[in-house]
Amino acid sequence: MISIVKSRNPTDKTFGKLAFACGYVMLLVTNQVPDAMDYLLAEFNKVCMYTVPKHLHALNAQARNTDYFRLIGYQEEDGKLQSTEKYLVNVVAYVKLYAAMVQTEIKGVRHPHGLAEGWKWLAMFLNTLPAIPATAFALHAFLKVEIRIGALCLTICVCS
Predict the structure, then answer these.
(1) How much is the pTM?
(2) InterPro entries of this UniProt entry (predicted)?
(3) Are residues 44 and 94 in contact, defined by beta-carbon separation less than 8 angstroms?
């Protein structure tokens, strides 16, 4: 699932219905193999620290070097760090996929990391992370999700 995000079109900042399809598959797999949820969450946390949520502060301007940017999730492209715009696209993609996984419910299937975990994530996010562009993008991606009720699909953005 994580590789889908890595290979998707970087100019498209939304998943459309693909995020929920991935959430559906993740829920079915982790329900059959409960240890897979720990692995999946570890993969999310490895590629995007905002799915934990956490933020690493640079102690000063000198500390904002290549190692720091790699540590917070910037990827290398052709031996150089990706642009901030591409980094933010990735943050949005991973957080949207995480939010879709948290929100997906299947009748008769126990969700090991469902809405209760989403509320915990939101409380931790709002109470501990600084107001910087990356956290703003992550928060917006988490809050702007589609709620699926049978055949009805509503898009809700709490932040508008």
Answers:
(1) 0.82
(2) GLE1, GLE1-like_sf
(3) yes
pLDDT tens track for 99-114: 999 998 899 998 889 9
Helical ranges in 8-132 per DSSP H? 18-32, 35-47, 66-71, 84-103, 115-128
Q: Which residues contact 139 (CB under 8 A, 6 or more apart)?
A: 125, 126, 159
Q: Confirm if 82 and 124 have CB atoms less than 8 A apart.
A: no
Reduced to 3 states, what is the DSSP secondary structure of residue 154?
Answer: strand
Task: Using pLDDT thresholds of 50, 70 and 90, give the confidence band for residue 152.
Answer: very low
